[in-house]
Model the fold of this input.
Amino acid sequence: MLSGSGCADFTVQCFDSGTATFRDTMYPDVERNSRRRSTPHFAILKYLSDDMEKKKFTLKPLPGDGLHLVVPRKLAVNYKNDLNPAQYEAVTSLDGPHLIIAGAGTGKTRTIVYRVAYLVELGVKPQNVLLLTFTRKAAQEMLRRAAILLDSRCEHVAGGTFHSFANRVLRKYASLLGYENNYTILDQTDAEDVVNLLRTRMKLDTRERRFPRKETLYDLYSRSVNTLTHVRDLLAGEYPQFLELEADITALLQSYIGYKRQNNLMDYDDLLVNLARLLQEKEEVRKALNDEYRYVMVDEYQDTNRVQAELVRLMAGQRRNVMVVGDDAQCIYSFRGSTIRNILAFPEEYPGCKIIKIEENYRSSQHILNLANEILRRGGVASVPRTPAERS
Ligand SMILES: Nc1ncnc2c1ncn2[C@@H]1O[C@H](COP(=O)(O)OP(=O)(O)OP(=O)(O)O)[C@@H](O)[C@H]1O
Ligand SMILES: [Mg+2]
Done:
């Protein structure tokens, strides 16, 4: 190992000259000790130590920036052994955009867990990895599994739900958007109550006519935000009976927006929308976050909505080290505006992206798969993956 108190000296021999520091994260001592600057796209590092024999290490460009120390050494986890070939490819394929398509029980989450461990083993700082999922429990579970697989470094990977991540960032930067950083979050019930309060204040609900209930109104508003669709279009498509009330409904929603601003409140949708706005409008914040989160991973990408897909794009930044994992046949959060479109559009939005399909199913027994396939077939959707037994 290079790091540690035994370090005595470094000499760096370059085949190329220029200016760049060694930005290797695996062995911070390399950067600290090698004050000589160079831009070797390829260099040999000789490490001299009192009690260690001379060793050779190869430096290669880091994904996107800097140099990557490629050390002929044994990794702690036997990735090849623990993963099937498609999973292995996904885990060890590092740079650029990746779309992993896989059915239920094919080891999507396992793939992410192993990739977290792999990145950390390669020397990527855990806090430079961002893992986004749909429940806090899922995120914690993945990091816990990665920590068991490798070591406790994996617990320091930045992870959480889109909302908790947005909240973490906005607590620091919300003032740039005109909020106070100590804003209060409205959960769904709180938000519906505010809508109700304003509805009563505006005297919209009269005996003479039926006005939508607070739940319907909030759902309408939330869908409009999450799917980037105009309220009028949603009314026409889903609540045609309320189309004639469009002006009042829109006025109420405007009043809801104003109320939240005046009282320093954000509902769940605001967290996502405001993070997107922050990243779009405040370049310095976007750059800082892009520098911090060099690898972005998203599990259950099929459940993302338009705003979340936009957030992923902004967080991936110019480095575009983003891996999304999703199942194009399950889309459980459609009520929140999630859209299969995000998976289908991924290759277009990220030209040159690598698509990897994971097909072996480790969970379902064959008759369940047959049944599920039949249901999906009737619904005109892609098939459920085959079991390893079926493939062999
Ligand atoms: N290569 C493998 N070898 C052995 N077991 C595996 C392999 N890949 C996945 N499994 C096992 O299959 C099960 C399902 O894995 P995992 O939860 O990662 O799948 P998933 O695709 O994320 O499922 P879901 O669709 O429910 O999210 C787990 O018990 C996991 O350990
Ligand atoms: Mg999973």
Q: What stands out?
A: Residues 108-109 surround magnesium ion (ligand 2) (CB under 6 Å). The first strand starts at residue 7 and ends at 14. Residues 184-263 form one domain.
